[in-house]
Amino acid sequence: MKNRRLIVAAISVLSSLLAKAQSTPAQQWVDQTYKTLSDDEKIAQLVIIRAYSNKGVEANVVNDIKRFNVGSICFFQGGPVRQAQLTNYYQGIAKTPILITIDGEYGLGMRLDSVTKYPYAITLGAVTDASLVYQTGKAIGTQHKRLGVHVDYAPVVDINNNPNNPVIGFRSFGEDKYRVARSGIAFMKGMQDAGIMATAKHFPGHGDVDVDSHLDLPVINKTRAQLEDLELYPFRELIKAGVQSVMVGHLSVPSIDNGKNRATSISKNAVNGLLRKELGFNGLTFTDALEMKGVAKYYPGGTIAAEALIAGNDMLCLPESVEGTIKAVKDAIKQKRLTWQDLEQKVKKVLLAKYNLGVSKQPVALDNLLNDLNSETDAIRKKVAEKAITLLSLANPNTFRNEFFSWPLKKSRKVAYVAFGNGTKETLGDRLKADFNADVFYINYADAVGKGGTVVKKIVDGKYDDVVIGFHDIATRKGSTNYGISQSAIQNWYALNKTNAITLVFGNPLAAASFCTAKSLAVCYEDDVVFQNTAADWLRGDFVAAGTLPVGVCTFKQGDGKLVSPGDLTYLEPIGDERFTAVDSIAIDGIKKKAYPGCVILAAKDGKIVYHKAFGSFDYDSLDATRLNSIFDLASVTKTSAVTVSIMKMAEQGKIDLKKKLSDYLPFTKKTNKADLTLENILLHQAGMVPFIGFYKETIDADGNPRPELYRSLPEEGYTTQVARNLYLRNDWKDTIWKRILESPVVPQGRKYEYSDNDFWFLGKIVETVSGKPLEQYVQDSFYIPLYMKTTGYRPLERFPLYEIVPSEKETGFRNQLIQGTVHDEGAALGGGVAGHAGLFSTAYDLGKLYQMLLSGGELNGHRYFKWETVQEFTAYKSSISRRAYGFDKPEKNTGGIQTYPSALASPQTFGHTGFTGTCVWVDPKYNIVYVFLSNRVTPTRNNPRLGSYNVRGSIQDAIYKGLGVAN
User: Nearest to residue 834, comparing CAs of 739, 694, 737?
Assistant: First the structure.
């Protein structure tokens, strides 16, 4: 027995020696410091007291430090230098180093003057790039560390799922649990990597309440399953990710603890049960401020502090008094509701946190302090602003007129900026004036409707192309004033909310609820110089607005946000309703039957677009979806869309006469069999020329490969005529093309209708000769630029990236490649991509503008391109031997009432054209309809007759007529 006692004693001594040998410096400091504390001081180490740097040295703070040796201070309002001075002073008089904390959710600027704020959580929630949220958290952590702060009560990981919440709102990352968790983790890791303790709050979730816990105890009537699914998710994820502390909120949650007025902050079930045991959190827990009425009204004096410790909390935030807290805790120990062993565990945990955070009496350096604190804020704010701005809607053009907001803004357009706010001059107004010579107007929230209405009238009367509307000075919470936005301001906004206007909300995205009917709407989140300048950069097209909505508002859901690139393409969205389901079916069926891999269809009635949709993809095996902005090779639609309209203009101007001969305009045709051909017969395809000449066959060898003496794979001197990708023709070979055309046979003109590309080679050359401009430049200057036909033109690769352009044929026997971005027609390709019969590219929308102008008698957007009589002259039947008009195709004549071309229901007044690549455009003046069909039916091969054999184009045209109810 004696030997056994000796062995036990030896083991005990050995264990003690091993424990000392293994004790870390941190543990040694904790144990040594703990031994120096009296019982009252041990309790006081768990207390956080309030301090202000704008009140100087506060007697009560000095008393609590000297008398009780309090463990922590939480600083509130003041200034950075004064806080540093007070931190140094308070640390200097403290027996034990003080843990300095602050509620700085968006940095020290939340509390201190002269320090720039970092972005709000709601703004960061709009950012999809978690690395930028991490950078923000780290920058905030670095800022805190520079001022001697050790703990920041952030991030807020409450879910913003109640828009009437009076206390969370903009402080939350959003309403989606995954977004909140993702952003919260990134922010937390950034701060903790900077050496600052982050605090996830307000456990178990303060988002779904409509009572302010500063004033009363909010009740959350949710089941445990509901809490697990939503509110608890971010906390669980942050705990797994290593958050060092959690703040427990004052919330009544009966499914966790149904005790009367038992807030979660003083609930064993919530803290020791749910947070500690179920979620496995072992870090520090802070109570929310114990002075808040949500709990203080039910537990006066120091009672609440004792209850919080009993529940399992470690640190007591802002109890009513330190002395009262110490007394209440001692009473609880006497009542055996707490033990000194419980307190020892908590105090040592706090001391260990102090050690790990580097808490010491080392003074905060005052030199260059303010500059250091603000060194990263503007750069971070700029990055966040660029990633947060959220485009919710952009007016979708449903007409061909220019009355739609044009993004990016352009100097060529007349721009107005109207700022709603409290009368402060706005940076955005200065920028828009400098960048776009915008006229700037201000409407004060305090202005009566009539006073603001005088400004509105000036804007309406000013006939501005684009109107930018900015709402500024927006309160962070809705309150009783609708975020400070007056009803008179909203009423005046309605008068400005036209399709040419965009509304920018510089504040809480929930404030956008006042502008649900905005034609174009973007949320910019914050309202300082940085965010306004960034908004100006976006309006200029410097970057893509990539933010997504963190909370739902109006009909927009969280996660919504349009990614619109600042390219030259018009922003478009699909248009169509149940009247046109047959159109959808035919288009989809055509793809299934492999008549074409993709198409875009547009129909307009009375100048309004009633149908505009895209179907399929660039190729049958492609993942590149055909889009409304996809650019197609128009093939022979070039004849009417470039050359015919040019001839019309010159004829109207008296520069050419259709009765005259080719040799009157093209001297090189004299002494050839083409000299006496009249322009009229050429336009009608009855000049007697051959339909087609295979020029390209002379440029390839017997195996179908380009002849090396004529082609180069890269452009070089003398070889700059691009025929296809990596294929450049010798420049002088264009002379051979004309030689072959001039040598080709003709039959007597006017006797036979023979559709011919050669007719339009000559007409294109006449346009160039008479105008003195290249064909491609003449049509741009005369039509496409003034009509804002941004995508229409020759050689699209000079203006657009390849991925915007639909491919045509995967050709063998000449170019031996997939043709994309260069013209499919071989002759036009040999001509460098420009010819009178082919070579034009366009989107359906831009092409529709040209034909709407013709339908409108030669006018669009207040600009007259032709006299009405000119349009009538060129689009009426003009041949006794064919269905043709001048340049334009038309329905067959004398069909005995049975018509199939271009469709069964098209009226005889219809005019337009088709294209070999699978395109067509038809204008029907009787029913006031424009119909455009663009496809790439030649992909991957031209030997595909299905588009014609299935009569897809005509069937769709008839389905549109039936949908409109204009024909039986």
Answer: 737
Segment holding 906, helix H or strand E: none
What SS3 state is found at 198? strand
- Facing residues of 74 across strands? 50, 101
Nearest alpha-carbon partner for 495 in 527, 530, 519 = 519
- The predicted structure's pLDDT at residue 380: 98
Pair of tokens at residue 142: 């670095």
| Beta-bridge partners for 721 | 729
CB 342 within 8 A of CB 303: no
Rounded Cα gap, residues 305 and 326, in angstroms: 9
Residue 762, judged by CB atoms within 10 A of its CB (0-12, 13-18, 19+), counts as buried
Point out which residues pair with 633 in neighbouring strands: 841
Integer CA distances (angstroms), 846 to 639, 796, 841, 850, 902, in order: 16, 14, 10, 7, 22
Name 761's Cβ contacts closer than 8 Å, sequence gap at least 6. 737, 738, 741, 827, 835, 836, 837
Question: Which residues is 934 bridged to in the sheet?
Answer: 600, 919
Question: What contacts 50, CB < 8 A, 6 or more positions away?
Answer: 73, 74, 76, 318
**pLDDT tens profile 671-711:** 999 999 999 999 999 999 999 899 999 999 999 999 999 99
- 113 is written with which tokens? 């003057």
CA dist., res. 320 & res. 328, Å (int): 12
Per-residue burial over 284-308, b = 16 or more CB atoms within 10 Å of its CB, e = otherwise: bbbbbbbebebbbebbeebbbbbbb
Sheet holding 245-248, edge to edge: 284-287, 245-248, 197-203, 151-152, 99-102, 72-75, 47-51, 316-317
Instruction: Say which residues have a Cβ less than 8 Å from residue 788's Cβ, sequence separation at least 6.
Output: 402, 846, 849, 861
Contact 791, 842 (CB under 8 A): yes
Residue 763 near residue 682 (C-beta atoms within 8 A): yes
**Tens of pLDDT, residues 934-953:** 999 999 999 999 999 999 99
Amino acid at 83: Q
Q: Which residue has the tokens 């991925």?
A: 803
* Helices 232-241, 177-193: inter-axial angle, 10-degree rounding: 30
Q: Report which secondary-structure segment, H or E, holds 405.
A: none
CA count, 13 A, side-chain hemisphere, 917: 35
- For position 215, what pLDDT does the model report? 67
List alpha helices for 312-448, DSSP H.
Answer: 322-334, 340-356, 369-373, 377-388, 427-436
Nearest alpha carbon to residue 578 among 963, 954, 966: 963
Phi, psi of 729 (to 5 degrees): -90, 150
Instruction: Give the model confidence (pLDDT) of 210-236 as tens digits.
Output: 766 676 788 889 999 999 999 999 999
Q: Would the CA dihedral through 671, 672, 677, 682 be positive or negative? A: negative
Contact assessment for residue 546 and residue 421, using Cβ atoms and an 8 Å cutoff: no
**Three-state DSSP class for residue 223:** coil
- Kind and range of the H or E element at 234? helix 232-241
**3-state SS class at 252:** strand
- Helices assigned H by DSSP within 368-415: 369-373, 377-388
- Those residues with Cβ within 8 angstroms of residue 825's Cβ, 6 or more apart along the chain or in another chain: 635, 757, 835, 837, 838, 839, 916
Strand partners of residue 287: 248
In 3D space, the residue among 362, 470, 385, 376 whose CA is nearest the CA of residue 420 turns out to be 470
Phi, psi of 72, rounded to the nearest 5 degrees: -155, 150
Instruction: From 291, 299, 338, select the one nearest 317 (Cα to Cα).
Output: 291
Q: Say if residues 703 and 814 touch (Cβ distance below 8 Å).
A: no
∠ CA 78-80-85, nearest 5°, is: 95
CA distances from 827 to 292, 740, 792, 836 (A): 83, 12, 20, 10
CB atoms within 10 A of CB 739: 10
Angstrom distance (rounded) from CA 126 to CA 523 = 10
Main-chain phi, psi angles of 251, to 5 degrees = -135, 140
148 touches 87 (CB < 8 A): yes
